[in-house]
Design goal:
alpha+beta; Beta-Lactamase; Alpha-Beta Plaits; five-stranded antiparallel sheet; 17 helices; 20 strands; 41% helix; Rev_trsase/Diguanyl_cyclase; Sensor domain-containing diguanylate cyclase; Diguanylate_Cyclase; diguanylate cyclase activity
């Protein structure tokens, strides 16, 4: 093979070949080194396609037919034998009186690899930012974890991506994504002892990632337990980044067998993603706490009025069996006045706990006011609902410290929810009025006396005060009376408060009965008017206002009424008494 005079002075590889026979005529020193051929090797008779491409016949992409003496033909090519990419410069030259091919290669490999790395890094950064953006929109931590791992594994070309959480004395694999054909490992990676991760924990403590580019290369260097744990999972390389919250390690995010040429660039991106992931979990937790606070009563743990209003509006659009129980704690003001608000709060908590014990599994429970509670039951028939109400009332009978008024109503269609809630509320207030009526007259039911009702002695004392010592109500001539009426609205029984104001006058009883009858027949819930009474032989005019508290026996009714003795009230204020006419 002939020598080329400029060989030593030319740093880039080149060769000269016959364009007809393809025989190599010359390969310079740089070319021989590139193809790892001894400098003194005899290449005479060797074809260019054999030497340069490892082929048995001319290359299909040969450019001989494109060459000329006047200008070079320039193109790029990656050689399959050297894996180097070159910018090739081809032209015809005169070699001993014959036109031959000269090809000079300018090595682009370093620039190409750097460019590819830059493009990969840029693309991977975009992937991480897109995943972070997806996390920002997530409201469910489970969905956020699953989608992050799936996107991470698919976009960055890993075989497996996963999350581990710190639990007790070890780590557990909580989530994983596997590429097609890759076996799941999650079941075998539970409750793993911290001691298996001592090297990793040291790196995490320094704010670094775990980076293994070749597992076999570190065999004998790392703890055998670490090597074996990874080896049985068919892991050749991995990158793992710590997940922290408030400066404390809570887990880690990892990828198995990512692309070898990208693994070093993936590590810092994974660290950044862990930050976004941790912030996402914290945000979701904070949002859920805010929602819980907006929908829950902090004292009792039950739902509050906000949630009650939303649930009512939702149920109103349906047509399902629905029942409601309204419940109000009796005597809350006296309890707060006597024992302070701490005692009142404890009583409300006791009430809530009793409701939860009886209805917690079948009803939604709400504290809708200071001492008012509501329980709603859906998809239960009327018999089942009444049974629940009886159980609830029995449960409160067994809690002497918690005196409550209740009202319940059921409907087969929750579309009628407003009426149902109104009726239940009204029933509760009727029960509450009965309670205070009994207190005001000392007419305490035997069952309550047997339970040692805490109000008995105080209420009896209050009645004695009214009769003997006088109160502001007595001074102004105002009373609160209970009348039990029969079907003809004749007063069968009145309490002591009525006698204080009217002198237990029979004529007054008939007048009150007439007012009540007229109002009841007109469909009114209450009545009002002025009646004349004969109090100890002295005529008096009394203003009466009353409401029907409940239905009585045999078609009658029970009415609660307040009275103002007009003359006494005016006299007590220094005014001239009003004298009734004889009409």
């Amino acid at each position: 093979m002939a020598e080329y005079n400029d060989d030593l002075s030319y740093p880039d590889p080149f060769y000269i070949s016959d364009i007809e026979t393809y025989e190599l005529l010359h390969v310079n020193e740089a070319g021989r080194r590139l193809f790892k051929v001894p400098l003194d090797a005899d290449l005479e008779g060797v074809k260019c396609y054999e030497f340069l491409q490892g082929r048995d016949e001319p290359c299909p992409f040969c450019t001989n037919h494109l060459l000329s003496v006047e200008k070079s033909y320039v193109w790029e090519f990656t050689n399959p034998l050297t894996n180097h990419r070159h910018l090739l410069n081809d032209r015809l030259i005169n070699w001993g009186g014959k036109l031959v091919r000269l090809e000079v290669g300018f090595d682009l490999t370093d620039q190409k690899e750097e460019g590819m790395r830059f493009r990969n890094l840029h693309r991977n950064e975009e992937v991480i930012l897109e995943i972070a953006n997806d996390l920002y929109r997530e409201t469910d931590p489970e969905r956020a974890s699953v989608r992050m791992l799936e996107r991470l594994g698919e976009e960055l070309g890993a075989e497996r991506s996963y999350l581990f959480s710190a639990r007790g004395e070890g780590f557990s694999n909580t989530h994983e994504w596997c590429a097609d054909g890759i076996s799941s490992q999650i079941e075998s990676l539970q409750d793993m002892d911290y001691r298996l991760f001592e090297r990793w924990l040291d790196l995490f403590g320094r704010g670094e990632c775990v980076l293994i580019e070749d597992l076999d290369a570190i065999k004998g260097v790392v703890d055998p337990r670490e090597y074996e744990t990874l080896h049985v999972q068919e892991i050749a390389s991995l990158v793992v980044a710590p997940i922290e919250r408030d400066g404390r390690l809570v887990g880690f995010l990892g990828m198995d067998n990512p692309p070898a040429d990208q693994i070093r660039d993936i590590a810092p991106l994974l660290r950044t993603l862990c930050y976004f992931y941790s912030m996402t979990l914290q945000r979701i937790e904070n949002e859920r706490q805010l929602v819980a606070m907006s929908y829950h009563d902090s004292l009792t743990g039950l739902y509050n009025r906000n949630r009650y209003n939303e649930d009512v509006r939702r149920l109103e659009k349906l047509a399902r069996p629905f029942g409601a129980v309204f419940l109000d704690v009796n005597g809350m003001k006296e309890i707060n006045d006597r024992g302070g608000h701490a005692e009142g709060d404890h009583l409300l908590q006791t009430c809530a706990q009793t409701m939860q014990r009886v209805l917690g599994e079948v009803a939604r429970l709400y504290r809708v006011g200071g001492d008012e509670f509501v329980a709603t039951v859906v998809d239960t028939d009327e018999a089942g609902f009444r049974s629940l109400v009886e159980r609830l009332q029995k449960a409160f009978d067994e809690v002497p410290s918690c005196e409550v008024a209740t009202g319940a109503q059921w409907t087969p269609r929750s579309s009628e929810i407003d009426r149902t809630l109104f009726d239940a509320d009204e029933a509760m207030y009727r029960d509450k009025r009965r309670f205070y009526q009994n207190r005001s007259t000392s007419d305490v039911a035997p069952s309550r006396r047997a339970r040692g009702d805490r109000f008995d002695e105080r209420e009896r004392a209050k009645a004695r005060d009214v009769a003997q010592e006088g109160t502001l109500m007595e001074l102004l001539g105002i009373g609160f009376a209970r009348h039990r009426l029969d079907e003809a609205f004749t007063t069968l029984e009145s309490n002591a408060c009525y006698s204080l104001v009217t002198g237990d006058d029979e004529e007054g009883r008939r007048a009150v009965g007439a007012l009540a009858k007229e109002a009841r027949e007109a469909g009114e819930r209450g009545f009002a008017g002025t009646v004349c009474v004969n109090r100890g032989g002295v005529p008096a005019r009394v203003r009466v206002s009353g409401v029907f508290a409940e239905d009585g026996a045999a078609g009658g009714a029970v009415a609660l009424a307040s009275y103002v003795d007009v003359e006494d009230a005016l006299a007590s204020m220094g005014k001239e008494a009003y004298k009734p006419s004889n009409s």
